[in-house]
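Assess this one:
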Amino acid sequence: MACCDSRPVARVKHASALATLFQALADETRLRILALLAESPDGPETERCVCHIHAGLALPQPAVSRHLATLRTAGLVAARRRGVWMYYRLVRPSDPVLVAVVDAALHALSHVDGTARDRVRTALAVVAAPGPAA
């Protein structure tokens, strides 16, 4: 059965990769984090400091760090340490089926009211406390 397109249907090599992705996406906080990383004003490859992510989500830093660790394990975010600060950025999966799932989730998040509020809070946090230069 083909999808809405006449192109050949891509195949996932291992169902476990799809299951891991869905597990990572099955949490509201992780979805909010992905939306913040995807909708960075400087582009999707821009890193965000964990201090700005947790301020933008209005959640405790340990909870945000735990969710970021889950996203790292799933291969959806990459992290870089600079001194005591951790910076995160969105990583696109290499499998085209997984990319389609992530893109669909990010598109759906762009229609959620809370995503805009998170973005505004994050921008205010960056202005109020820019943190160290990346």
Remarks:
- The chain has one domain: 24-126.
- The chain has a mean pLDDT of 86.
- Residues 4 and 10 are 13 Å apart (CA to CA).
- The longest helix spans residues 113-128.
